[in-house]
Design goal:
Largest sheet: 7 strands, mixed
Distance between the termini: 29 Å
Order of helices and strands: HEEHEHEHEEHEEE
Radius of gyration: 15 Å
Strand order of the largest sheet: 5-4-3-6-7-8-9
Number of strands: 9
Length: 201
C-alpha cells in the first residue's frame, strides 16, 4: 500500500476536520497545510498528513474501538483517531509534550483522549487490551509488551527500523487464536522510539 491508497472516506473526513495548524509550533504554521513532517519540541516531529492517513487507515478504525497511541507528540494523530473511535489512550515519554498535548486537545473540545507521561515500550497495561495500537516513533523491533496488549483480532501499525535510517511501516495483526502476522507496508522515516527496553531485547 502506498500513502495515496489510504482511501477510507471516514479517515479522509477526519483529517479534513482536524486543524493541523493548531498542532504545529507558531514558527511552522505557514507550512501547516503542506504534506510534510514538521518539527515540534524535544527533537520530535508531527507526521505528514498522508502518513497519518495511512496509519489510521491500516488499523481499520471503528466507533466501538479502544485504541492505544504510543508517542503523543503534538496530539495530532490522537485528534484524528478521536473522531473515529470510542477512546484513545496516548502515552508520551516527554512530560512537557504530554502536558501541552493534553491541554491542546482539551482546548479543541476533544474529550475522548486520555494522555499520560510514560515509557511507550511498556504500553498502558492497566487499560489493555486494545482493539488497535498506533506507534508514532520507530523502535528497532516490535515491542513485545505492545503485542501482548493487543486484543485478539486487533491491529497495530508501527514503523520498525534503525534510528536515523529508513524504517518499514509494519502492520501487526493478532488472530483470534492469538497468532501474530507481520506485513510490511511501505518505507518511512520516523524519529526513534526512546525509553527503556527489556533486558536482552
Amino acid at each position: 500500500m502506498a500513502p495515496g491508497e489510504a482511501d477510507d472516506p471516514r479517515v479522509i473526513e477526519a483529517l479534513r476536520h482536524v486543524p493541523r495548524v493548531e498542532f504545529v509550533p507558531p514558527e511552522w504554521r505557514h507550512r501547516a497545510h503542506a504534506d510534510t513532517a514538521l518539527p515540534i519540541a524535544h527533537g520530535q516531529t508531527i507526521s505528514q498528513p498522508t502518513i497519518v492517513a495511512v496509519m489510521t487507515h491500516l488499523i481499520a478504525p471503528q466507533p466501538h474501538m479502544k485504541v492505544l497511541e504510543v508517542g503523543t507528540g503534538s496530539g495530532y494523530q490522537a485528534a484524528v483517531l478521536a473522531r473515529l473511535v470510542r477512546k484513545v489512550h496516548s502515552v508520551e515519554i516527554e512530560p512537557e509534550l504530554a502536558t501541552e498535548a493534553a491541554q491542546r486537545l482539551e482546548r479543541l473540545g476533544i474529550t475522548n483522549v486520555e494522555v499520560r507521561t510514560g515509557d511507550g515500550w511498556a504500553g498502558w497495561p492497566e487499560a489493555a487490551p486494545f482493539d488497535a495500537i498506533v506507534v508514532t516513533a520507530a523502535p528497532p523491533r516490535v515491542p513485545e509488551a505492545l503485542v501482548a496488549q493487543l486484543a485478539p483480532g486487533g491491529r497495530m501499525v508501527v514503523p520498525v527500523g534503525p534510528a536515523g535510517g529508513i524504517q518499514q511501516l509494519t502492520l501487526v495483526e493478532k488472530g483470534r487464536d492469538g497468532g501474530v502476522r507481520h506485513t510490511v507496508v511501505t518505507d518511512v522515516r520516523f524519529v526513534p522510539m526512546t525509553g527503556g527496553r527489556p533486558a536482552g531485547r
